[in-house]
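Something for you to look into today, if you have time. I want to see for myself how the chain folds. Leave the record below and I will have a look.
***
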Amino acid sequence: MLINKNTMEIVILSENQHSISSDLANQYRILPKSVSENTLELYIDDSSNNQDAKEELELFLGKHIVFSPIDTIEIEKALSIYYRKDRQVNVSKSLNVDKGDFLENLLGEAKSLKCSDIHFEVYEDSSRIRFRIDGQLIERYKVERENYLELVNKIKIKAKLNITEKRLPQDGRITNESFDIRVSILPTLFGEKIVMRLLGQDASNIDLSTLGLQKEELEHYLEAVKKPNGIILISGPTGSGKTTTLYATLRLLNDSRRNIVTVEDPIEYTLKGINQVQLKEDIGLTFSSALKSFLRQDPDVIMLGEIRDSETALMAIRASLTGHLVLSTIHTNSAIGTISRLIDMGVPSYLIAETLNLSVAQRLIRKLCNNCKKEVECQKEDFPGNFQFPYEISKYNKPVGCNKCFHTGYKGRRAIYEVLTIDNTICEAIKNNTVTKLFSNDESYKSLSDKAFDILAEGETALEEIYSILINI
């Protein structure tokens, strides 16, 4: 265990953390200080009965126990960070990957902690496993360098990949009982790095009304979705919830009267009654080629996982012109920027004006923990230099950290949306290439940065969480 001199917080090394279980740590209020072959040195709450605890722990752990008493407050804080009481899966105490259930325990823990990605990384003299939780990477395990290769091979076998191929990237999939896992393997300087993305199998419970759209935004969205043809585009960076919004839309449209086809990379959820196609670029099954085939399948609704190039963009526009409703995602910073992006891809502005029903931009923002957030004075110099304040605020909240949020300062996430409905005025602006000018003079229109600022003013999030949105838009 180390003491962070900058924050005075206790830091537990991941290789020491798993020398005791979460149950033992919380029951005896102990933390590992150092670990050797026969001795385990533990910090213990200075209010505990040390002698009884010592005898019991030596019996449980089979090692000589040495105690170092420490303040109750520091113990409580470290326990909430490193040994969460709400963990549903008992993690294996040993990091020996020879154990057959190591990978299963790891996946179970990741799911219980609502982890979206697991990173396996190897370096010159060490390797580690990190979890992405609420958008942030957290180191969970150290793995011995010599055991890392065996762990990689186990993952490759489960994902049906070539275990002898170590020079080229590989992609695979593992099907679990309650969720699917997308596996990406990348050769690096000291070995192969693996990222496993945990995907939900069932989208039957995803509902548009619960995603965070405001009442007026939801009304505009539903109105656009009800149209028999046209294109709806959702923009945002990776991890902003675009795919979830698309699946919620498909679930709404899914009935026996419609033929719905999708091409995705990867298929993140399965929906009964929808024909889903997995992208396979290595054999020529691209978004563009799949879309050409879709048009011969008598579709009513087409969902493209992403518009990546000019050919796909033009095909999507043509499909919407011929009486199909097309849903897709695109990488832009704003709903207005989507129009410029399509023009840059070579789509004529008059076709965009005729076919685009709705442009949506979205982001996911972490919410502050209501138990510990702290109000501070608003300092304008803390904001991006080019940010235009929509209105004055005197205070906002910042994260602090407590037991309820595991000392992260945040608890949960919410989505914010910028919804641009294409009416006659905007159609004319698209044709004349004056969309940006039109909205620069429209004070009633709320951009993503305005929405983010509203949430800051309401005290729901922190400036650090929305800073990138304020600076990019």
In short: Residues 4-8, 87-96 have pLDDT under 50 and may be disordered. The longest strand covers residues 356-368. The two ends are 43 Å apart (CA to CA).
